[in-house]
Amino acid sequence: MRTTCTLFGPPSFFVRRSPNSFLFSVFLTLTLSLLSCFFFSFLLFTKLSEASTTAIMAAPSSKTLKNLNGKWTMNKTLSDSSEPVLSLQGVGYLIRKGISLATITLEVEQYEGPPKPPNTAADVVTHIDIKQSASGLSSTQENRCFDNFPRDHTDWLFGTVTGRSRWVSLDEVTDEFLKKGWEIEGEGQNFITNIAENKEKGWVAEQVWGFQIVDGERRYCRHVVVTKGAERAQIRLVYDFNEE
Ligand SMILES: *[C@@H]1O[C@H](CO)[C@@H](O)[C@H](O)[C@H]1NC(C)=O
Fold first, then answer.
1. Which ligand 1 atom is nearest residue 76's CA?
2. What is the pTM of this model?
3. How far is the CA of 92 from the centre of ligand 1 (A)?
4. What total of structural domains would you count in the chain?
5. How far is ligand 1, taken at its centre, from the CA of residue 69, in Å?
6. Whose CA is nearest to atom 1 of ligand 1?
7. 198-223 pLDDT, tens per residue?
8. Half-sphere exposure at residue 86, Cβ-oriented, CA atoms within 13 angstroms
9. 143-186: per-residue pLDDT in tens?
10. Which atom of ligand 1 is the closest one to the Cα of 103?
11. What is the C-alpha separation between 115 and 14, in angstroms, rounded?
């Protein structure tokens, strides 16, 4: 008789529950609903902001490495995940997740002018100033000067990094991954390379920039290799062109 009662009566965990654990489960349910609500509105927000950018996708023929001026958006469908590279660069888990969800845009300003200090030469060199933003996170500003002079740069994402940029021909690129896949548009030193080192965290990031035919269209791409001791991570990033 007793067994039947327990079997068909109200579930024992309801009966035995103290008021405290009841309050706790109400609290837990509310917190969880609130969290998922935040999460889905964030997802919706990123999806909406992605949809509202008017991407032209392919780079117009006027866009070359000599003229990257304009706004570009990283195409996450065509790009490799940044995860392994960011992880090797010591970027924390939550920020990596945030970056993987965000829309990454580049605002590029390119011009010729005298080099920045400490280079005192009177030559005219290429400058590429880029503001990189991730929707929902702070942006970073990196001003590159193409004279191969090492300069320090500090931002919230990568810490203090010593970087240098220059024009190269693919013959000068030794790494197989950095060297391959590029459209050859013209002769001589018409590829961009940038080497950045974080001495404190012990990593070196080397990039080559150029154009590639991806999914049938000409696009601005970056190959990135990060090494830290014997560890190595490499990715290809592909960008959609948005506007001038
Ligand atoms: C990325 O590239 C694909 C394939 O060309 C394209 O369909 C898509 O619209 C592009 N942009 C984004 C934001 O996914």
1. 14
2. 0.78
3. 28
4. 2
5. 21
6. 75
7. 999 999 999 999 999 999 999 999 99
8. 15
9. 999 999 999 999 889 999 999 999 999 999 999 999 999 999 98
10. 13
11. 74
